[in-house]
Design goal:
The chain is of the alpha/beta class and 436 residues long. The protein has a single domain (3-31, 95-433), classed as TIM Barrel (Alpha-Beta Barrel). It is built from 14 helices and eleven strands. It has helices at 3-32, 106-112, 135-139, 141-144, 179-189, 199-204, 206-214, 234-252, 268-276, 297-301, 307-323, 337-353, 363-366, 424-433; strands at residues 166-168, 170-172, 194-197, 218-221, 258-259, 280-281, 328-329, 332-333, 359-361, 402-403, 414-415. Strands 4-3-2-8 form a four-stranded parallel beta sheet. The structure holds zinc ion (ZN). Residues 165-359 form the NodB homology domain. Residues 1-19 form the signal peptide. It is found in: Cell membrane; Secreted, Cell wall.
Length: 436
């Protein structure tokens, strides 16, 4: 078979897979904003049998959650500022929940200045974040460093824990009404994770974020509205990251230095903007043949598969993780009752009881960033991510990094020059004005 034919066929295959994925994502999104009648109420207290965990299963009233920590409380990280004293949060002072924030606000205009001095690749937004939906961008995926389409990464992406059998545990999309059930289980098992939180949900449930943080979990940014970032303009990406960063900083008093793009949708433009804003991208691990360390719990919540299939995917993760040459990072969610039930009732115990033993921990910890290493206020590492203006040095070799292509493509990469925080004062001032 001629090379062109093979290439065409594999491109077609990728397109079909991506089109299928897009359909699944659309399905998932509908569940997120479902307006149909709720499923029947389950008044029992136990986790349901695995075989019954599927979309439409009986649901339970979310646990009652009451705030435990007062403003001024000492945080779990040495050197961290005390918890801010929060008055009632005025939702009207923040962008609309689950919507892309407007870009003409004073805050976004100020955050745009953080991009000055950086080379932001001139890539047009993708049409719908999928290969199948945007064949032109898909053909340029390697050059774009597009992870969603072909798994292309750069040296600045965190994609795996360095040490074999280390497990970077992560939960995305919360805080949700069911998050307390997960926190209780994690506390019972003395396991910490990274929570990639959605800014608009942080503002909605600030006390749950505080509980996550005070329990020793790491907090990272997962955008304001959970839209795919490659589809957005530069200004919209800045708004998504900036508002979420501000939400977390406002509630906790610390500022994350990491982010995870929704759906893993990142390319060199999104990457450069994130890095310019002081946010290192964290993805989840892929095997060399493209298999992802994805629990597929979101597919259960989206009605595409049922509980046993997600647990089977988890078994595959553990088998791959056992044989993987390094540690790894997984993807799970705490947005839905279904995904929390899967973790609390099934997968966390599977992971904890596995032989050989995995060392479950937050991503920053497995990366060796140390106590407080994932927040700007408390990181003690002078080169990671960057506390000064000597240049981005993720690999710690003393010189500014060039973002080189570590994926399968042949992109030229790009250079980051002289990053520097410019908006600290502005962020602090803006924080004050957001509360009544
Ligand atoms: Zn997500």
């Amino acid at each position: 078979m001629k090379f062109e034919t093979v290439a065409l066929l594999s491109a077609l295959q990728i397109s079909l897979v991506q089109a299928h994925k897009a359909a699944r994502h659309a399905h998932f999104k509908r569940q997120d904003t479902a307006t149909t009648a709720p499923p029947p109420l389950d008044t029992s207290t136990d986790i349901p049998p695995l075989a019954s965990i599927s979309l439409g299963m009986p649901t339970k009233v979310p646990p009652t959650f009451t705030a435990t920590f007062a403003g001024g409380a000492t945080g779990p990280i040495s050197g961290a500022p005390p918890l801010p004293t929060l008055g009632p949060i005025a939702l009207s002072a923040w962008p609309t929940q689950d919507r892309i924030p407007p870009v003409d606000s004073p805050q976004v205009r100020e955050w745009m200045k953080e991009l000055e001095g950086f080379h932001i690749p001139d890539l047009r937004p993708t049409l719908d974040s999928t290969c199948g939906g945007d064949p032109e961008a898909a053909a340029d995926a390697a050059n774009r460093g597009w992870w969603t389409c072909g798994g292309h990464t750069r040296s600045t992406d965190i994609v795996a824990c360095p040490n074999k059998l280390d497990w970077g545990l992560s939960f995305d999309d919360g805080p949700s009404p069911y998050t307390p059930n997960l926190l209780e289980k994690l506390k019972e098992k003395d396991v910490q994770a990274t929570f990639f939180v959605v800014g608009s949900r942080v503002i909605e449930r600030p006390n749950m974020l505080i509980q996550e943080y005070m329990d020793g979990h790491e907090i990272s940014i997962h955008t304001w509205s959970h839209n795919a970032l490659t589809t957005l303009t530069n200004e919209q990406i800045v708004a998504e990251l900036g508002w979420t960063r501000l939400a977390i900083q406002t509630v906790l008093g610390v500022t994350p230095i990491t982010m995870r793009p929704p759906k893993g949708d990142i390319d060199d433009r999104v990457r450069a903007i994130s890095l310019a804003m002081g946010l290192i991208p964290i993805l989840w691990t892929s095997t060399p043949d493209g298999g992802k360390f994805d629990s597929f719990d979101w597919r259960v919540a989206g009605g595409e598969i049922e509980g046993p299939e997600s647990v089977a995917a988890f078994e595959t993760i553990m088998a791959n993780g056992t044989n993987f040459p390094t540690g790894f990072i997984t993807l799970q969610h705490d947005l839905f009752e279904i995904t929390v039930n899967l973790a609390v009732g099934y997968t966390l115990d599977m992971a904890i009881n596995h032989e050989p033993k995995f060392d479950l921990q937050p991503v920053g910890e497995c990366m060796g960033l140390g106590d407080g290493g994932v927040y700007r206020e408390t990181t003690k590492n002078t080169t990671f991510p960057y506390r000064n203006n000597t240049g981005l040095d993720v690999n710690g070799d003393g010189t500014p990094d060039v973002l080189v292509n570590t994926g399968t493509g042949t992109g030229a990469g790009f250079t980051i020059t002289v990053p520097f925080w410019s908006s600290l004062t502005v962020v602090a001032l803006a924080t004050v004005s957001l509360f009544l």
